[in-house]
Every structure is written in C-alpha cells, then in structure tokens.
Amino acid sequence: ATPTALMVGTGRGAKMGILIKNGEVLEAVNDVKTVIFDKTGTITVGKPQVTDVVGDEAQVLQVAASLEDASEHPLAAAILARAKTAQIKATAVEQFRAIEGKGVAAVINGQTGFVGNDKLLTDFKLDQALTARASQLQNEAKTVVYVGLADRIIGMIAIQDVPKATSKTAIAELKARGLKTVMLTGDNQRVAEAVAAEVGIDEVIADVLPGDKADHVQAFQQTGKVAFVGDGINDAPALTTADVGIAMGSGTDIAIDAGGIVLVKNDLRDVDKALALSRKTFNRIK
Ligand code: ADP
Ligand code: MG
Looking at this predicted complex, what is its ipTM? Predict the structure, then answer.
C-alpha cells in the first residue's frame, strides 16, 4: 500500500540521518537531471580561516575586525578570530551597513571604511601589484576581501574554507549516475573554479547575488528536474524553487524549513543515498 511504502522509505532514511519531510519530493527525484550545490557550508566545511594578510597586518586586521564586528557572515567570523589571535581589539564603529553579496561598511574614527569584494570597489583603481596578488590567492581557492579606509585600499585578507573530506567522492557518485553537477556561489569566479576543480564539479556559476540563486535554478529547470543542496539563509528561495530541495542539517533554520529533505550528518554522500532511497520508495508506491 502507498502510505506503507512511504513510511518504510522515510523510516529507513531517518535511520541513515536522511529526513524526508514530504512525499512530494519523492516523485520528482526519478527525473532529476541536475544537482546544484551551494559552496560555503555545503561543499566546504563552512569554517573559513584567514590564511594571508596583505598590507600592514596590524592595521588591516584592526580596521577589518572593527567593521566586521557586527556582521554575521562566516568571513567576518574568520577575520574576528584572526584579530583575536593577534590580540587586536575592535574599535566601536558607527553607521554599520551589511551590503548583501558584497561586504560591510561603517564609519571608524570619523573615516569611512569597508571590507568586501571587488563589487564594492567600483570607485577604486586597484594597482597592478595588488590585482596580481589577489588573482594568485584566488587561484589557490582563497576568497579575497579588500580593506578600505578613507578612499584608500589599505590591504587585503585571504580566507580559505576547505572542502569536506567526502565532497569529492559524493560528486563522483552523482556523476556516475549520469547527473550533471553545478556549483552556485556568491564567491568569486577564480575561487569557485579552484574549489570546483578540487571536488570534480562539472559547471560553476560564481558572483551570484543572494537574490538571484533561485533564478539560476529555474534556468536549469528548462532542461529537466533540479535538486538544489544548500545551507544558508540565502539558499532558501533556491531550495523551494528546486524540484528537490536538500538542506544541510547544520544549516540555518530557514534553509532547513525550506528543504524537502534534510541531511542530518552534513555529509554530501547522503545526497546520492537520498536520491537512491527516494527512487526506491517511489517505485514501490507506484
Ligand atoms: P556565499 O554564501 O555563496 O559564499 P555571499 O553572498 O554570502 O556568498 O557572499 C558573497 C561574497 O560577498 C563573499 O565571498 C565576499 O566576497 C562578500 N561578502 C559578503 N559578506 C561579507 C562580509 N561580511 N565581509 C566581507 N566580505 C563579504
Ligand atoms: Mg552556504
């Protein structure tokens, strides 16, 4: 009987740490052609660490930590941790602003400062040496943020978030099933490509603003059903838009609510297991 098969399937999943929240997703799974992944916290561990500080390290960290103090972004946490290790104390700032997909800005000691990516830099001409160093760091899969103070770039901070140990195997399993794998990220193209190469992802879409993730999912839906795997607040619209939304158990509550399937163990190999289980369960229901 239909409900029995569903219960057996969801029960088996729950034992493996794969929570199937509704039967609806099961129907879509059979026809999934593309699996789209968020990068940070989904393919990578989600605990970025500062690896390089370019410029006067004490000053760059002091300004950056002060500006990032009110931010909840994982990159902010990395900068604050590094400042703490270096025993640098944050200065109080005024007029703090988080600029979605770009960075943060605030007034520090009467001067405007910012920390963020090149989308924040439209008014600056970066000197060649700095640009070259940034590209080099990005090719090493490091995210680069620029630190600006009073109309001047005072330095750069490189931050790395390593792939989870099982991400590469997980992607290979999905590709072996004939599925296309895609990475969708707000991070820079070079960094995204470097991470994608490490784990074997087929296609990269980088520099995506948080509000645009769902549109990219829709574009792939032109060619077949799409599963989206993510963990962040900004992944929620993509998780709901996808035919199968798969949230990381470690993700934000908003992402977990938006996902039809939740991976409790945060292991990307469970994507393949979830797809296989759903397929089995659905075929039994039919
Ligand atoms: P994702 O979650 O896909 O990695 P986000 O949209 O959160 O992407 O961020 C995209 C990019 O915006 C980051 O890689 C970084 O360059 C910049 N950015 C966002 N927030 C901050 C912040 N608080 N400090 C510095 N840079 C930031
Ligand atoms: Mg994420």
Answer: 0.95
